[in-house]
Structure formats: C-alpha cells, structure tokens
Amino acid sequence: MKKILFIIIVCFCSFSNSELSKGEFWEDGGAVFKKLDEAFNEIPTYVIQSNHNEIIFGLYESEVIGRYNLSEIKVKGWPLKYPVNSYVEPLIEQRYRDVCRFGCFGEDTESQTLKLELSSNKDLTLGCYGQSPLRYGDLDGNENNEIVLFLGKDLVVFSPESENIKFFQNLNVQDWMPKDKTATWITDFDRAGPVSDKHPQYLSNIFAYTSSNYQMVQAGYRGYAKLYFSDFDVNGKRDILVWRKIYQSNLRGDAKQGFTLQGNAYLHYELSDSGDSKGQYVKLETEGELVQQWLTASELTWSKGYPSKSECEGQEGQLIPEMHDPLLNDPDVLK
Question: Which of 77, 197, 301, 327 is the most exposed place for a label (fewest CB within 10 A)?
Fold first, then answer.
C-alpha cells in the first residue's frame, strides 16, 4: 500500500521563514486516514494537526497536492510537476546535453527543454530537512501562509489559495561522488584506471550514471542556492533573491583538496499581482550586479540565506555542513 505525505492547516497566522510548522509522524489518523485511503489508496504519514475543518495533503508518489474539506467530504487535487522554465544551472544543462542525446530532452537536444522530475528522496535534502518534508507558514513574509515542500534537491512553495506553485528553486546540485567511490568507479571494470593525478577527486554522477560510455570520467559539479526575502527594490512587491554557487572538483594532482568555484549567479524573483502569473514569483531580468548590491547593502551574507541551520541529529542549529564546507575553497561560504 502506498504512503501519503500530507499537512493539515494549522492557523492563518504569520510565521517568519525560520518558524515554519513541521509535519510529524502520526500513526493513527482514524477516519480521515480511512477516507484518504479509500480515495487514493495511500496512507498518510506526516501531519500537522489542527482544529480547522480542512486539510492540505501531498501525494508524493502520485505527484499531487490536494485539499480535503472534512465537513463536505470533498477532495480537490492539483498536479505537482517540475515547473516549466525553472532555472537550471547552465553547466548542468550542458552536461546533460553532452551525455544524454534523447532520453533527457526528447528527440531534439537543440530545441527541447531539459526534462527534470521532482523527487521525494529525503536523503537528497540538505540539513535533514527531508525528515519533515512538508511545512506550513509564511515563508516569504507576505502575511499569507504557504505549503513548503522539501522534495529531494528542490524547494517547492505551494499556495493553497491560488492553487499553484508560488515559487520553485533547486537548492542542491549534486553531480559528484564521494572520493572513495570515485576511485572505485574509475578502477572497477577497467573503466579508466588506474587512478592517476589527471583524474578528478570527485567524479561526475551525471556522466557515470547517464552516459552509455562508462569510461567517460569527468570532474563532478557541486552547487547550492540561498534565498533572501524582502522588498529589496522598494516598489511595494515582495522579492526573493537567490544567490547560487557552482563548483567543480579539483584533480587528484592538484595541491588543493576539494572544489573550485566556477561562478556565482544572482537571481531576482518578484511576486506578481496581475495576469496569468498573479500570486506567483516571476523571475525578472535584473542585473546580477544589482542583486549583489542589494545583498551587500542589507548586510546579507551566504550564511544568512535560507536554508541555513541544520536539523540533523547532533547538528541542530548549526550551519548546514555541505553549504558551508571548507572544501569548497570559497571564503564566502564561511561568512
């Protein structure tokens, strides 16, 4: 029998981005669970209880977000798909074009958009946020509550009022293998061994698992995104700034261990109040230099971006290690 991950609306009050209510494991949902099981053949697992007459739920395997009115016993669902035109790291998109001629893009890699999928794999989330993947509260500070989902490497902000994905961003570029696994992969089955100084310290996952030519050994990419919430351009509309970083593995023969920064990207999203995009954050063509100036003027460093604090056992409240790793060889991530 399938499992359901869902959230019950708690209250219509404001939360800061660090005060989102989290779902907890609930073994017995009684009649509510029975109704949902009858409707979807899936059993709820993570919930936030409330005395309200409505629940919001997410079916990860069915890729659906839904609303269930308890008194009217009505269920409405909306597809939860990877948003079209979502930002993809250019280096990652090119890497898929290099190794995946058809399955990743359809029949024409020159014109087709990269086909990406959402994942509910909690092991891919940073800071153990996947242990409580569904949350509820006012993430962006606009006094409206949203459902916040940590789905694998991605953050999805869903609005139950406008019934759509309000904001989406990939938080974790994970195109790299651990060092010991890299050495094993290179040498096993005569792929490209023996290991030498010319090989990367951390191998590309995309090349290793997507390419049909397993002897193609390429340096892995590793990247992260931080979010910042305010009205940065002071025009009365909420903004989300995104600071992205992407790194490439050093070679085994390099003096430095770890990775080298390949670039920063500064993105500006603004909450639309009109047209088909009303209620959604739309990416504007704001110059990255200006976005960087807004962050500097507000004294917003990398460690002040969201997410920042780990929820892993024994690391609660500490900076998420992967996003602030000295092996990134980047002074920004330590500020």
Answer: 197
